[in-house]
Amino acid sequence: MSLAGPATAGSVGLVRTRRAVLTQHGPLVLASGAELSHVEVAYETYGALAPARDNAVFVCHALTGDAHAAGWHPGARRPGWWDNLVGPGKAVDTDRFFVVCANLLGGCSGTTGPSSTDPRTGRAYGPDFPTLEVADLVAAHRALLDRLGIERLHAAVGGSLGGMQVLEWALQEPDRIDRAVVVAASSRLTTENIAFSAVARAAILEDPDFHGGRYAEHGVTPRHGLKVARMMAHITYVSGTSLDAKFGHVRDTTGTDKRLEADFAVEHYLQHQGESFLQRFDALSYLHLTRPMDYFDPFGAHPDVVPSTRFGLVSFDSDWRFPTAHSLRIRDHLRARGAQVDHVELASPWGHDSFLLEPPGYHDRVRALLG
């Protein structure tokens, strides 16, 4: 919901994050069969819902995102993570659409996750939080949409893990989403992708302060492991070209001087990325949200579903985390089922993170896909 306040051109202005309880009429049953008796979800909305309730667009965020996709929180220095895409007159035009973005189940930004209180014990779930699948992340979104009284979506939009959620949702509810915009996403991770995530998780799991996931009870956090995990992952989100252009071989030392600690500008950059991540993310949430991606195989899980959704797929030529081959796999599977789908690869120097930025043609493409 937008609030009165200062706004820059194209901004939704000041916004607030709301919370909704999704389990008023029974527990949330997960794909594993486990149940969560109390689930809250943090979400934000932008724009106005039309009287016919036919202009809703759901934005699904990526791995470490949150519900704050656009606008400004009072006192915040930065706008929402997709503020360049969502707002009045922008590609996801809040003058036309009622936009909803929700924090993921298992997260740590207002939605029930490992750091939430377990009603059975009165303590944080910690390592007792159940394992999740992408289907469970979507189930929480579906429940929120039901709570908001929105039966059908004009569109669902997401990048990376967000795009994976959009794909899963369209297969779970094949007649609920008119348009699906799936950006820089995958329907099945490569072995290399799983390997990168395995190293990141090992850094957390093997941190001496992890304590089997009960670090909160010890008054510590696995800071070192989580920092290394973020540094590792961040390398895969950017491109070699962008790193070279931004940092090159610039270093603190000169001439023949050398040292073992951080020296090159790119090292300091990664250190900063890791340190800043510690201020906003929880280690167990990182584990619980990376693991579902490894097992994700929606076409295998929904072998006979033919969605009525029209799909628009976007990939970027410099993305080596989810390169274009991932989008082509989605395209081919959907076409084999008779679904309406098209795909475009766009040029960008910024790698996987391109979905958060504005490479040439990208926002125009999203605008066109939304109709």
What does this molecule look like?
With 371 residues, the chain is an alpha/beta fold. It is built from ten helices and 14 strands. The protein has helices spanning 134-147, 161-172, 191-205, 223-237, 240-246, 265-278, 283-295, 298-301, 324-336, 362-370; strands at residues 2-3, 14-15, 18-21, 28-29, 35-36, 40-46, 56-60, 86-87, 92-93, 98-102, 153-159, 177-183, 310-316, 340-346. It has an eight-stranded mixed sheet, with helices on both faces. Residues 1-7 have low confidence and may be disordered.
Descriptive tags:
Rossmann fold; Rna Polymerase Sigma Factor, Chain: A; two-stranded antiparallel sheet; disordered N terminus; alpha/beta
